[in-house]
Every structure is written in structure tokens, then in C-alpha cells.
Amino acid sequence: MADCTQCKNLNCLIKIHSLDKNVKDFLENKYTIKCKKSQQFIMEGTPVHGLFFTYKGKIKVVKTGANQREQIVRFAKDGDIIGHRGGFGSAKYYSISAQALEDSILCYFSKDDLKQLLLKTPKLTFDFMLFYADELNESETRVRKLAQMSVKERVIDTLLLIDKKFGSTDGLFNVSLTRKDYAEYSGTTEEQVIRIFSTLKKQGLINAKGRKIGLKNSEALKEEISKHTLDIYN
Amino acid sequence: MADCTQCKNLNCLIKIHSLDKNVKDFLENKYTIKCKKSQQFIMEGTPVHGLFFTYKGKIKVVKTGANQREQIVRFAKDGDIIGHRGGFGSAKYYSISAQALEDSILCYFSKDDLKQLLLKTPKLTFDFMLFYADELNESETRVRKLAQMSVKERVIDTLLLIDKKFGSTDGLFNVSLTRKDYAEYSGTTEEQVIRIFSTLKKQGLINAKGRKIGLKNSEALKEEISKHTLDIYN
DNA sequence: CTTAAAGACTGCTAAATAACAGCTAGTATG
DNA sequence: CATACTAGCTGTTATTTAGCAGTCTTTAAG
After folding, report:
1. What is the sign, positive or negative, of the torsion defined by CA atoms of B26, B31, B37, B38?
2. Residue A73 maps to a domain
3. For the residues of B38-57, what is the DSSP string, one character each?
4. CA-CA distance, A138 to A83, in Å (whole number)?
5. Residue B107 has pLDDT above 60, yes or no
6. How far is CA A196 from CA A50, A153, A225, A233, B196, in A?
7. B43-85 pLDDT, tens digit each
């Protein structure tokens, strides 16, 4: 059982407010879910029941069209919220799927409980609002990048994101993704990702042996996409 | 002076809550701004001061990279919010620009006033949160579409969006956009838009004489992009 | 250990898209 | 009225990207 009082996720909105009386009561009814690697715990199109927080683990959030081609819309790690407005609003069905990239532990809250809590805890609701506003901003930046960057630039941008989001150890990302995952985030095909990785490898800009991937010269990589990035945001 | 008691925008979050005591007091300090066609009233990268509501008019919201190529991220009409979390959060600079597509009237609220209001009006904050969560969901759908649809499909999708958002009169959109605008929303070039319009015109699917553009056979257009759309969302 | 399966990789070809250049029509301006 | 400007349009070419087929490699399972 993941206990909020022991939790180290200082970015978790629930954790931040866990001293609040309302939140304390609410946490009595908390569920914890263990999730194996590759397990899908939210399925797009199924009825909404609640919302998840990542206690520990790494998750990919995916949108699928009728064409069955998957698009990774974002990644989540410790403390991150998953399930959009699934938690409270009027949406009847989940608009995304979520799948664990490694064994993970999730905190689950039912939509009714959470809605009650939010309506009587303004500061928490305010922070939720800011969270969604930030996510919206990031998503809109992503819209611009997908529309304007070349495939190579998008792949480089993805590599930099992965490093920033999950970090690296000994020059290798702390997360294991397939070439297809990189493609599904970058909005291209597996083959293109493979080709671009191999070029970047030859240029000495990245490490890439199987799933063991990492940055070797992040400055040079940033330089390659600099015409699409403004300092203001960084 | 745009008066909330007279306002007809039933989707406006402020209007909805305008009977609340806190909101009433807050509205004492409201500003109204008139904005000419083509005028830019938010500039990306400038310091945040507050947030706008569209009282009446049509707006395009744009993101520009260092490359100076513009990407229209969304359109706004009567009742819509513009300025992201500019209203309250920690963001120092606007992350988008906003420009009037026609003469418009805007309601302006300073970030400090609005933050105070939200913190003491939980129901309003809750609705703001839902608004951002919905926008996030739409933006993520857009990410998927930009990544997976062909140029032609994206242009058709844009045409359907414009019809849905601004409506049509006598088979012509109630908004005047250039081919470049369509391109900057669809994530392609002006030339491609022109070519695709002319094909669709020949097929009898749209009307297009200069800026006078409209749908002629929306069912057939929807059919063309159906493999990317799920009924669940509509 | 053996085998199957998934992932990684490469070269080739076809298709989609962007970029360029020039042309036309309408319209605003002095 | 002449001029210049903007938007719309088209054909051609160059570039980018995707798709396919086949091989090699690693990993996982029996």
C-alpha cells in the first residue's frame, strides 16, 4: 500500500496538500494498484471511473485513431497525473490509453470522491487548474513542433525530452523504449528513427546499442533544433 | 463597455458565475478593450499581465518558433478564454500571440485580481479546471492528427473544424481566412492548401471563391478522414 | 540448448510534400 | 488612370518521407 505520508513525490498535487483536513479524510479511501511492465491500465473508449497518480514507475499515454495507429501523446513518471479529466468532468469515456513502461505502482481515486474533494478544497483545485493549463501549453508547443519540424528534428527533440523527463545514468537513458516508441512519439516510422539514430551515432552525438540509448553531445543536438526553440520557454 | 449582465455568451465561465457575490465584486474592476481587425493584442514572449475573454469577435491564437514560421494553435470566438494561464500562474511570459480576425471586443482581467477571485470561489475554479482539461484533450487529439494524417486529410479536417467552430451562412463560412491561415492551422504550405481546395472544388465537395469558402458535401468530407476519427469523441 | 519471435537494421523504390518561379486577378493608393 | 501590392493560382523540380523486402541480432520461452 502506497502511503501518502511516506511518499517522496514532492510534485504530486495530492501529496502537496496532504496535510489539509479534507485531503486527509479523502485519503482514507485510497486504492493502490500494482501494474506489470507492458500492462495497459486505461483503455481509450472505455467508461470513465476515475483518475490515476503515478506513485512509482514510468508510463506512456497513447491516443489511437480508428486507423489503429498509435500516437504517444506524453510520458508520465513518479508524481504525474494520468487520466485527464477522467477524474471528475462530464466526459463519459477515456480519450487516451495508458500503458506501463516498467513495473509501476499507481494511486487510484474514484471520480466522485475526487470531485467532492476538489469542490471543498479551493487551493487544491487551483493547483489542478494550473497543472492542466501548463499541460495545455506544453501540448500546444508540441502541436507547433509536429507541424513545423522535419522528421530528423522531431526525433532529436524527442531524445532531448526523454533525457530531460527520465534522466540518464552513465550516459544512458533511465528508460527502455523501442525504436517504435520513439517513432510513435515523434510522429514518424520506425525505419526513419533507426536511420536517424545511426546517423547521429556516426556523428558522435548519441550512444545507441539496442535499447541502451543516451546523449553524447546534447549541446550539438540542441543546436540542431535551435531555430525552433525560444529561450523564453526554457 | 461590455456589461456581464447583458452578455449573451452562455459559455463564458465568468458569465455563468456572475451571480456569485465574489464575482460581482470582482466585475467592478473589469476592463473592456476594442480591437480592430488584424490587431495583435497578445505578443508571445512579452510579460504576462492578465487574461482575456472574447466578448464578441473572432481570434486566432498563434505560436511562433525562433524560425518565425507561425503556427495557428486554435481559434477563439464569443465567450472563449485567451491567454492561457497568463491570468494567474507562475509563467512570466505569454507563450502565444493572439490576433483579431475581425473587429472584436475583449474583456480583460488582471492576473492578481483573477487569482484572488479564483482562490475564494471554488466552483469557478473547478470550472476553469474543467475548461483547461477539455482544451488539453482537444490539443492532444490535434497532436495525433498532425502526426498521423496526410496533408490533404489535415486540410479537410481544418475545413470541418472551421464550419463547426464559426458556422456557415448560405453555405459559406462566417469567417474570412486566407489560404495561408488554413495552411498555418493545418501544418502545411499555402500552395498545398490551394491545390487541395481546387481538387475538392472540382469534386463538388466545397465552395471556394476567394475568401468565400464553404462546405458543399460535409458527409463526403467526413468520410475522407473517417479512418482517423472515432465516434466516441463526437 | 533450441527455437521462435520481436526488434534492429539496410538498400531500394515509390509516393507525398515542399520549394521555386512565374503568372493572373482583384483592389487599394497616390 | 497608372501603379503597386496582395492574394490566389499552376506547372515543374527537388527533397523529404514512407513503405517494402530481406537480413541480421538479440531476447525470451519452452
Report:
1. negative
2. yes
3. T-EEE-TTSBP-EEEEEEES
4. 17
5. yes
6. 40, 10, 14, 26, 31
7. 999 999 999 999 999 999 999 877 788 999 999 999 999 987 7
Is the distance between the Cβ of A178 and the closest atom of strand C smaller than 7 Å? yes
Average pLDDT score over residue span A101-120: 92
B144 located within any domain? no
A222 near B CB under 8 A: no
Chain B residues near residue A226 by CB distance under 8 angstroms: 66
Q: Which one of A87, A112, A135 terminates a domain?
A: A135
Q: Answer yes or no: do B74 and B119 share one domain.
A: yes
In this predicted model, what pLDDT tens digit does every residue of B118-175 receive, in sequence order?
999 999 999 999 999 999 999 999 999 999 999 999 999 999 999 999 999 999 999 9
Q: What is the pLDDT of residue A204?
A: 95
Nearest-by-Cβ selection for B126 from A125, A141, A226:
A125
CA A210 to chain centre: 23
- Pair (B59, B109) in one structural domain: yes
Per-residue flag: B194 CB under 7 A of strand D = yes
Residue B158 belongs to a domain with what CATH number? Answer: 1.10.10.10
Would you state the pLDDT for residue A234? 45
Q: CA-CA distance, A185 to A69, in Å (whole number)?
A: 12
Q: What is the pLDDT of residue B234?
A: 44
pTM above 0.90, yes or no: yes
Q: How many CB pairs under 8 A join A and B?
A: 166
Whether residue A107 is found in the same domain as residue A163: no
Residue B103: pLDDT over 80:
yes
Are A188 and A122 in the same domain? no
Which structural domain range is residue A57 located in? 4-135
Minimum-distance CB partner of B132 among A121, A136, A147: A136
Interface of A with B in 76-135 (CB under 8 A): 84-85, 88-91, 93, 95-96, 118-123, 125-126, 128-130, 132-135
Residue that is written with C-alpha cell 498535487 in the block: A13
The answer to whether the CB atoms of B65 and A227 lie below 8 A apart is: yes
Residues 180 to 209 of A: which have CB under 8 A from any B CB?
187
Q: What is the pLDDT of residue B86?
A: 67
Last residue of a domain, one of B135, B160, B178: B135
Chain B hits for A44, CB-CB cut-off 8 Å, are: 232
Both B131 and B153 in one domain: the answer is no
Helices A151-166 and A179-186: crossing angle, nearest 10°? 110
Cβ of A140 near strand C (under 7 Å)? The reply is no
Domain presence at residue B140: no
